[in-house]
Amino acid sequence: MLDRVRSILSDAWPFVGAAYLAYLALRPPPVRYVGVGGLIIVTPLLFGWTVGRLFGVGPWADDGATEDGTVDDGVAADDGVAADEAVDDGAVEDGTTDEEVG
């Protein structure tokens, strides 16, 4: 239960911060300038974060990334061929085949 509450609170922080900046923007100057400046910077980030969390696009998408930020989709980095195993398909390094060379 505590994990669920923490998850809800962590998801709410961007909106709480934006609401506070909106509150500051409605106050008299000079605090208004801080609120408006903050909203100018935070609003696109909040929009991108919301779209990423809801629709799974952008850098904030929850697409199976691990805690360190790397994607773990269960596929190994190599295709199963060891580096010292050469596949001889008849191609020479410049792109021509043995038949074209000789």
How does this structure look, described?
With 102 residues, this protein is mainly alpha-helical. It has one domain. The protein contains three helices and no strands. The longest helix is centred in the middle third of the chain and has 25 residues. The protein is elongated.
H-E string: HHH
- Residue ranges: pLDDT <50 for 5 or more in a row? none
Quaternary state of the chains: single chain
Q: How many helices? A: 3
Structural class: mainly alpha
Largest sheet: none
Could you name the key traits of this structure?
single chain, 102 residues, mainly alpha, 3 helices
Structure at a glance:
The protein has 102 residues and is mostly helical. It has helices spanning 2-25, 31-55, 98-101.
Layout of strands and helices, then pairs:
Layout: H1 2-25, H2 31-55, H3 98-101
Helix pairs in contact: 1-2
